[in-house]
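User:
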Amino acid sequence: MADGVQAASGCLDFPMPSHHQLAARLSLSFLWLITAITSAFFARDIGYEVLAHGGIHGKLASTCIWAGSALDLCIGIWLLSGKKLKLCYFAQIVIIVIYTILLSLIKPDFWLHPFGPLTKNIPLLVLIFYLYQSSGHQHTDRPQP
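Assistant: Predicted structure:
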């Protein structure tokens, strides 16, 4: 058991190089921003359909769609800002877990969907956790003496 705990914390020993952190952060920002735009402007019908499966209709459904889009937009912009990234990574983990739980309750068949709207969350959570663990570590690509 101790080996498993040590292995789990081993990512602290090898923080992600800064240019990899930047690439990961920008790709996550892209994901959040595109999701916000798509949810608000191009796929609202899908959002209404999913929410209807959970018994959410009308103004409440519209509020949920716009609030979710706004939250996704804020996360995307926050990532671009580069400010308080450790907190941003933590917030993303919480948001993705909440979205995953809610969607699992409303549309559990999404776990078996061929495009993986829920299964994609697992590798995203791993990446974001790795960024969370790496944030605050000053790491360069040059070997240390």
